[in-house]
Write a structure and sequence with these properties.
alpha+beta; six-stranded antiparallel sheet; Four Helix Bundle (Hemerythrin (Met), subunit A); 22 strands; 494 residues; 3 domains; globular; 26% strand; Immunoglobulin-like; Rossmann fold
Length: 494
Amino acid sequence: MRSPAEQAPTAPPSGGGGTAVPYATTLVVDVDEPELVPRIPGESVRLLAQVKVTVLDRAEGDHADPGQLALLIALDLAEHRRERMVTAMRAALAAMPSGVSFAVLTAADGRGGGPVRYYPAEPGAWASADRKHRVNAAFAMGAAPLAADGAPASSGYEGWLAVARRTFAGCDRPLCRLLLVTDGSTGYENASLTEELTACGTAFTCDVVAVGADWDYQPLERIVSRLRGTADAAGPDFAAELAAAVRRACRRAVPALPLEVTVRPGVRVESFVQFKPQHLELAAEPSSGPHRHVFHALPWDPAGSGSEFLLDLRVDGSGDPLGEVLQFAMVSLGPRHEAVTACWRDPGLPPARTASNASDETTGDSSRFLDSQNRMIAHLKKGLTSLGAGRRADAERHLGQAAAVAHRLRVRWVLDEIEAWGDIHDAAAGSVSVSLPADAHRVSVTLLRLGARSANGSTGRTAGRQRTACPRPDCREPAAPGAFYCVRCGKELS
């Protein structure tokens, strides 16, 4: 059951700093199994709906209006990386479109102090990316305070995010971007990081460049997932990765445009998962009420490439009539509204013959297919996490379930990923064995890569290309296509 797509140009106010970016939106809601069998008393029924969205940016050029952009670069790096940091910052400054407002954060005193604005130094000031400020900033980087080698961290990632949040609060640009460059010099506390991520809300997006090896990337995936960004692992020379992150952050973009799901009484949202451009389970805003849920997805693709979501509802049909089309929820995107509808079928009658009923689980254009993909990715991540923690039974159970779904859906890249950590004896049956101990850093790199991978197996940058690996026999760290250096040992890749 498909709701008609609607499209109309919109141009919301920019909130200050330049003109608004014109864009058009489409919203389609597709329930592929619109008949619900009446529940057993006391039980609810599952209702899946596929949501497809496009937000087409109609601005001209390769990046957003510079008058709308504010770019904050946070350098959470150790002192021994100074020379390469200066090189990377020069590349980053050169990649900025002229007219972008930018600032740089560093450690306060180089001895583990909290982050502060380093350039420009004036409180509340932002620099324009013109020739003068590019030259001055590049020169100033040579004296930027970095974390002393071996010094204990006194400010976690939550500290960097808090300073970024306060810095952006004094900025009138509607498109705010944080680039966090970190080599693990900062620690973190789960509770504090969770609290700060909630406080950041949708004030800015955050891209991360993870430099070096032998440290835990786990919090980075949480940061970029919650703040709708991307994460790249880089070797000791990270200039190319930082410049690429700057270019991505400055692409044409529309202001924040959340998806809202409003449900009727007796219906609850079990989950709302984004599949494209990245696979991510979305969390509703804490302020959302029991019936209205607000979700902030990853930034919309300015080229108009569609985003896909799976809405999982639990429906209580007590007192509903049989055979009548009923509305259980409403999905909204700005001025667009589409209903989630279905009907309760008399269990004594045969189901209606529809194309959706006839399709199997491997059909890509169905909510059942997306649901299977979601379970596959979830089991793969849980299996890798268990592997890194040394829990063999849990790792083999979750990776086995991921292999079984991947075999059924014919998703080769997931099977390849599992085989990198062990042996698949029978994919259809989910029979997998793993080798322990597993390299914890390698596991964290893989999880970080999965966090930036769409559920259909491509990231947009690496689709159709084979992964390579470090040529050193004692390393063999997997590397993403296009990488220049091994993220573990730093060796140059061929």
